[in-house]
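Exercise 7.
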Amino acid sequence: MRTRRSLNAGWIIATVLAGLLAPGFDSDARAQESTLPPALLGEAGPPAGSPVSYFDSEPATRGYLAVPDGEGPFPAVILIHEWNGLVDRVRQVADVMAEEGYVALAADLYGGRTGSNRDENVALMQEAQAAPERIIANLDAAARFLRARPDVTGRIATMGWCFGGGVALSYAIGGENHDGTAIFYGRLVQDPELLARIDHPIYGTFAEMDRGIPPEEVERFADALRQAGIENDLHIYDDVEHGFWLWVDRDPAVAAEPARDAWERLKAYLKRVLG
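Solution. The predicted structure, written as tokens, is:
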């Protein structure tokens, strides 16, 4: 089965990223052999990190912080939740990122609220999207919070899914300077002039069967990045639907293989942009 199609534009192929992998290494074979984090399979334990206030102008905002073992300093990752808000699945992924050696801050863009059904999720998402400047201010505050920590190197990437993936891309265009952006099936921008404001490579994972962000839209995004001169690692995975990576347990027989590949790509990407 064809697992993915690469839309790389000006990117060093993942098998030799930053000299991390030996020549001739088969990244698809590595993905087959790798183990998915339990957080993606619905098998993780309770979140092990801590709630944290990082946005002084909105006291109701409560993020979630997970810190690696050891003294550091470590690079950092800001995680941006889906349309339903900061739920335990996102906290558990933050724990995974801490295990990988990153200080992980899961941002809260809904002021401590979460949705429990489609109508509530849509309402929360639309409220946030109606004030994009507040989203940028929230994430800028998250970046400043991380950089002020003595255990953070100062290098930061963002990653987000669905609503959060689109927010991550918007933040790459209009937010405080940072070093990486990982988009999982998020709303895309296809204007090369806007994308040219980005000053770092972009990671993107998308689903062939995503009705909201179809492959044709991703291909136009890849072309716009190419025109803007932005290095990227974009892949469309066959036979999977929107949400497949964060929620592998919804259809593990289909989603596990592409999710492993996307996980290996993500780890290589973060090592390259964050060190």
